[in-house]
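Suppose you are handed only these lines of text.
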Amino acid sequence: MELELKEYDKVLIGIGDDFNTKTDDSCKNSWEELIFIENHVDSNIIAAFNHLQTVLEDTDHFIVTTCNDDLIYRSNLDEKRIVTPCGGFRYLQCIDDCSHELLPYESAMYESHEQIVCPHCKKPVVFNRMPIDNYNEGGYMEQWQEYNKWLQSTINKKLLILELGVGMAYPSVIRFPFEKTAFYNQKSIMYRVHESLAFSTPELKERCVCVKANPVEFLNNL
Ligand SMILES: [Zn+2]
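From them, the structure of the protein bound to zinc ion can be written out as follows.
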Protein backbone atom coordinates (compact mmCIF):
# COMPACT_ATOMS: atom_id res chain seq x y z
CA MET A 1 0.00 0.00 0.00
CA GLU A 2 1.52 3.28 -1.14
CA LEU A 3 0.47 5.44 1.74
CA GLU A 4 3.05 7.83 3.09
CA LEU A 5 1.70 9.17 6.37
CA LYS A 6 4.42 11.77 6.73
CA GLU A 7 3.10 13.58 3.65
CA TYR A 8 0.10 14.79 5.65
CA ASP A 9 -0.07 17.64 8.15
CA LYS A 10 -2.47 15.67 10.35
CA VAL A 11 -3.50 12.03 10.63
CA LEU A 12 -6.81 11.05 12.17
CA ILE A 13 -7.26 7.38 12.96
CA GLY A 14 -10.40 5.49 13.87
CA ILE A 15 -10.06 1.97 15.21
CA GLY A 16 -13.23 -0.08 15.33
CA ASP A 17 -14.74 -3.21 16.64
CA ASP A 18 -12.65 -5.51 14.46
CA PHE A 19 -9.79 -4.85 16.88
CA ASN A 20 -11.80 -5.46 20.03
CA THR A 21 -11.68 -8.64 22.10
CA LYS A 22 -15.19 -10.01 22.16
CA THR A 23 -16.40 -11.55 25.37
CA ASP A 24 -18.97 -14.36 25.21
CA ASP A 25 -21.93 -15.65 27.19
CA SER A 26 -19.64 -17.37 29.67
CA CYS A 27 -19.06 -13.93 31.22
CA LYS A 28 -21.79 -13.21 33.71
CA ASN A 29 -20.39 -9.98 35.08
CA SER A 30 -17.83 -7.28 34.66
CA TRP A 31 -15.15 -9.13 36.65
CA GLU A 32 -15.53 -12.23 34.52
CA GLU A 33 -15.12 -10.07 31.41
CA LEU A 34 -11.86 -8.75 32.80
CA ILE A 35 -10.51 -12.27 33.30
CA PHE A 36 -11.84 -13.42 29.93
CA ILE A 37 -10.03 -10.61 28.16
CA GLU A 38 -6.83 -11.22 30.17
CA ASN A 39 -6.95 -14.80 28.89
CA HIS A 40 -7.67 -13.90 25.27
CA VAL A 41 -5.16 -11.15 24.56
CA ASP A 42 -4.48 -11.17 20.82
CA SER A 43 -0.78 -10.46 20.41
CA ASN A 44 -1.30 -9.90 16.65
CA ILE A 45 -3.41 -6.87 17.43
CA ILE A 46 -0.87 -5.44 19.85
CA ALA A 47 1.83 -6.07 17.21
CA ALA A 48 -0.31 -4.21 14.64
CA PHE A 49 -0.68 -1.26 17.04
CA ASN A 50 3.08 -1.25 17.63
CA HIS A 51 3.65 -1.21 13.89
CA LEU A 52 1.20 1.68 13.57
CA GLN A 53 3.23 3.59 16.16
CA THR A 54 6.38 3.21 14.05
CA VAL A 55 4.67 4.56 10.91
CA LEU A 56 3.07 7.37 12.91
CA GLU A 57 6.35 8.55 14.34
CA ASP A 58 6.84 12.31 13.85
CA THR A 59 3.26 12.77 12.62
CA ASP A 60 0.62 14.92 14.29
CA HIS A 61 -2.07 12.34 14.90
CA PHE A 62 -5.00 11.39 17.08
CA ILE A 63 -6.67 8.01 17.56
CA VAL A 64 -10.31 7.37 18.42
CA THR A 65 -11.32 3.82 19.17
CA THR A 66 -14.55 2.11 20.11
CA CYS A 67 -12.55 -0.79 21.57
CA ASN A 68 -13.08 -1.24 25.28
CA ASP A 69 -10.61 -4.03 26.05
CA ASP A 70 -7.67 -1.67 26.80
CA LEU A 71 -5.32 -3.60 24.49
CA ILE A 72 -4.36 -0.33 22.87
CA TYR A 73 -2.89 0.84 26.18
CA ARG A 74 -0.58 -2.18 26.19
CA SER A 75 0.94 -1.08 22.88
CA ASN A 76 3.56 1.58 22.20
CA LEU A 77 0.97 4.03 20.90
CA ASP A 78 0.99 7.36 22.72
CA GLU A 79 -1.73 7.39 25.37
CA LYS A 80 -1.96 11.18 25.14
CA ARG A 81 -3.16 10.83 21.55
CA ILE A 82 -5.82 8.19 22.20
CA VAL A 83 -9.42 8.49 23.29
CA THR A 84 -11.55 5.46 24.21
CA PRO A 85 -15.17 6.68 24.50
CA CYS A 86 -16.51 3.17 25.15
CA GLY A 87 -14.44 2.93 28.31
CA GLY A 88 -12.45 -0.03 29.51
CA PHE A 89 -10.99 -1.52 32.66
CA ARG A 90 -9.20 1.52 33.99
CA TYR A 91 -12.08 2.65 36.18
CA LEU A 92 -14.89 1.14 38.20
CA GLN A 93 -18.22 2.85 38.71
CA CYS A 94 -21.34 2.37 40.79
CA ILE A 95 -23.89 0.24 38.93
CA ASP A 96 -26.36 3.11 39.37
CA ASP A 97 -23.70 5.81 38.90
CA CYS A 98 -25.28 7.34 42.00
CA SER A 99 -22.48 9.85 42.75
CA HIS A 100 -20.94 10.10 39.23
CA GLU A 101 -17.65 9.15 40.85
CA LEU A 102 -15.09 6.87 39.21
CA LEU A 103 -12.83 4.54 41.14
CA PRO A 104 -9.44 3.94 39.49
CA TYR A 105 -8.89 0.21 39.13
CA GLU A 106 -5.65 -1.42 40.24
CA SER A 107 -4.94 -5.09 39.66
CA ALA A 108 -4.36 -5.63 43.39
CA MET A 109 -8.09 -5.02 43.86
CA TYR A 110 -8.99 -8.17 42.02
CA GLU A 111 -8.31 -10.48 44.95
CA SER A 112 -10.92 -8.83 47.15
CA HIS A 113 -13.27 -7.82 44.33
CA GLU A 114 -16.31 -9.43 45.92
CA GLN A 115 -16.09 -6.92 48.73
CA ILE A 116 -15.80 -3.87 46.51
CA VAL A 117 -19.05 -1.89 46.54
CA CYS A 118 -20.02 1.69 45.88
CA PRO A 119 -18.81 3.77 48.86
CA HIS A 120 -21.99 5.89 48.66
CA CYS A 121 -24.92 3.50 48.16
CA LYS A 122 -23.20 0.14 48.80
CA LYS A 123 -24.49 -1.29 45.54
CA PRO A 124 -22.18 -3.35 43.30
CA VAL A 125 -19.54 -1.66 41.17
CA VAL A 126 -18.92 -2.46 37.50
CA PHE A 127 -16.17 -1.56 35.09
CA ASN A 128 -16.65 1.75 33.36
CA ARG A 129 -17.18 0.27 29.91
CA MET A 130 -19.97 0.02 27.37
CA PRO A 131 -22.50 -1.41 27.09
CA ILE A 132 -23.89 -0.81 30.59
CA ASP A 133 -26.86 1.14 31.85
CA ASN A 134 -25.84 4.36 33.59
CA TYR A 135 -22.48 4.49 31.79
CA ASN A 136 -20.38 7.24 33.38
CA GLU A 137 -18.87 9.31 30.54
CA GLY A 138 -16.39 10.96 32.89
CA GLY A 139 -13.77 8.29 32.24
CA TYR A 140 -12.89 9.63 28.80
CA MET A 141 -14.09 13.25 28.92
CA GLU A 142 -10.68 14.83 29.44
CA GLN A 143 -9.23 13.05 26.41
CA TRP A 144 -12.38 13.80 24.43
CA GLN A 145 -11.74 17.49 24.97
CA GLU A 146 -8.13 17.03 23.83
CA TYR A 147 -9.44 15.25 20.75
CA ASN A 148 -11.83 18.07 19.92
CA LYS A 149 -9.09 20.64 20.36
CA TRP A 150 -6.89 18.62 18.04
CA LEU A 151 -9.72 18.29 15.48
CA GLN A 152 -10.03 22.08 15.41
CA SER A 153 -6.36 22.23 14.48
CA THR A 154 -6.99 20.11 11.36
CA ILE A 155 -9.16 22.74 9.69
CA ASN A 156 -7.64 23.73 6.33
CA LYS A 157 -4.78 21.29 6.85
CA LYS A 158 -3.84 18.37 4.66
CA LEU A 159 -5.59 15.66 6.63
CA LEU A 160 -5.39 11.89 6.25
CA ILE A 161 -8.30 10.00 7.77
CA LEU A 162 -7.71 6.32 8.34
CA GLU A 163 -10.77 4.38 9.39
CA LEU A 164 -9.89 0.83 10.31
CA GLY A 165 -12.41 -1.93 10.94
CA VAL A 166 -15.15 0.46 12.01
CA GLY A 167 -18.56 -1.14 11.64
CA MET A 168 -21.99 0.00 12.71
CA ALA A 169 -21.69 -0.79 16.42
CA TYR A 170 -21.33 2.85 17.58
CA PRO A 171 -21.57 4.85 14.33
CA SER A 172 -21.90 8.19 16.11
CA VAL A 173 -18.42 7.80 17.65
CA ILE A 174 -16.28 7.32 14.53
CA ARG A 175 -18.06 6.49 11.29
CA PHE A 176 -20.50 9.39 10.95
CA PRO A 177 -18.33 12.15 12.45
CA PHE A 178 -15.36 11.04 10.31
CA GLU A 179 -17.55 11.36 7.21
CA LYS A 180 -18.49 14.83 8.34
CA THR A 181 -14.87 15.82 8.98
CA ALA A 182 -13.88 14.47 5.56
CA PHE A 183 -16.77 16.30 3.92
CA TYR A 184 -15.90 19.72 5.38
CA ASN A 185 -12.15 19.47 4.95
CA GLN A 186 -11.61 19.69 1.18
CA LYS A 187 -7.91 18.90 1.64
CA SER A 188 -8.64 15.61 3.35
CA ILE A 189 -8.47 12.10 2.03
CA MET A 190 -10.12 9.21 3.76
CA TYR A 191 -9.23 5.52 3.71
CA ARG A 192 -12.09 3.34 4.85
CA VAL A 193 -10.79 -0.15 5.50
CA HIS A 194 -13.29 -2.88 6.30
CA GLU A 195 -13.92 -6.45 5.20
CA SER A 196 -17.61 -5.93 4.41
CA LEU A 197 -18.53 -2.26 5.06
CA ALA A 198 -15.94 -0.37 3.02
CA PHE A 199 -18.42 1.95 1.33
CA SER A 200 -18.22 5.67 0.66
CA THR A 201 -21.05 8.17 0.86
CA PRO A 202 -21.95 9.83 -2.49
CA GLU A 203 -20.62 13.21 -1.23
CA LEU A 204 -17.20 11.77 -0.42
CA LYS A 205 -16.74 9.64 -3.51
CA GLU A 206 -13.84 11.70 -4.87
CA ARG A 207 -11.85 11.70 -1.66
CA CYS A 208 -12.69 8.35 -0.10
CA VAL A 209 -10.62 5.27 -0.85
CA CYS A 210 -12.62 2.18 0.06
CA VAL A 211 -10.41 -0.77 0.88
CA LYS A 212 -12.10 -4.13 1.24
CA ALA A 213 -9.52 -5.84 3.40
CA ASN A 214 -8.78 -7.17 6.82
CA PRO A 215 -7.86 -4.02 8.78
CA VAL A 216 -5.25 -5.77 10.94
CA GLU A 217 -3.45 -7.00 7.82
CA PHE A 218 -3.84 -3.59 6.22
CA LEU A 219 -2.13 -2.02 9.22
CA ASN A 220 0.70 -4.53 9.17
CA ASN A 221 1.34 -3.72 5.50
CA LEU A 222 1.52 0.04 6.03
ZN1 LIG B 1 -23.69 4.09 44.29
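What can we learn from it? Helices lie at 30-39, 43-56, 138-152, 175-184, 215-220. The mean pLDDT is 96.
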